[in-house]
Amino acid sequence: MDEDALIDRHGRKIDSLRISLTERCNFRCLYCMPPEGVALQSSSKYLTPAEIERFSRIAVQQGVTKIRLTGGEPLLRPESIEIVERLAAISGLKDLALTTNGSRLKKMALPLKHAGLKRINVSLDSLDPIGFKKISYSDSYSDVMEGVLAALSEKFPVKLNMVVMKGINDHEVPEFIEFALNNPFEEVRFIEFMPLCGTGWKPKLVYAFDELLEKVAASYYIEKIHIFNTLYLDILSSVCPLLNYKNQISIEATEDTVMLVLSGQPIDEPIAAYGPFLMNTWQEVEQAIQDVNAGKFGVLED
Question: pTM of this prediction?
Fold first, then answer.
């Protein structure tokens, strides 16, 4: 491994930084957020674009090579294009990606391309307008589909993320596969419905991985299966903890005190072992990242 790489105590390289630009979202997907929404912080407490850039530069100096921008819905952040421009200019950063619901991509795909964004993941759970509204509580189906096509037209590598729910959208799995095969998507991902947050989770809605695999295998040749078993707990845990599929560092773009979470943690270990660092100065930020290699992990204090 590279001498400058961040290595967790299990010997895995941590080379990815995930940044939440906002906790706001214009959807109310039943697996993520209650229909009535959640209490939001004032945007005046958000880290500024310059602060996000500074943190990212420190992380890249410590071995991070990939950054993903998330939310909430990151494109609701007014400075999202400026943030992309700032991060794309960081020397040593090899990949800059965005996860979005796609509702603003139609107008923003081209500016994002010009700003230096490399890749886009779109969360899309139904190809049917009625099913889309049932899951997202949004009438933005046409905007999302036009946004997806706009991203493809700008030659972005695009991945689709579909949360599969029994009796709600599981019948659309073949349609998603055909949609992906007939368009230049990088891949389509089928995600098991998990009891994370929101008010819509019910055990009867879970479409288990083995069921999904059997359904897909009945009609398609499966060349490779990727199974990710590491846990990533987003700083915005009051909104929704997320499962992670990479070894990552995450920061929340809010408050004067930066919070950092280290992931790469096996799911059978207590979360406290990888609790967040609380940092008030940039020297503490840099030291916290360096502490990964030393096997030091902070624990969240009351």
Answer: 0.76
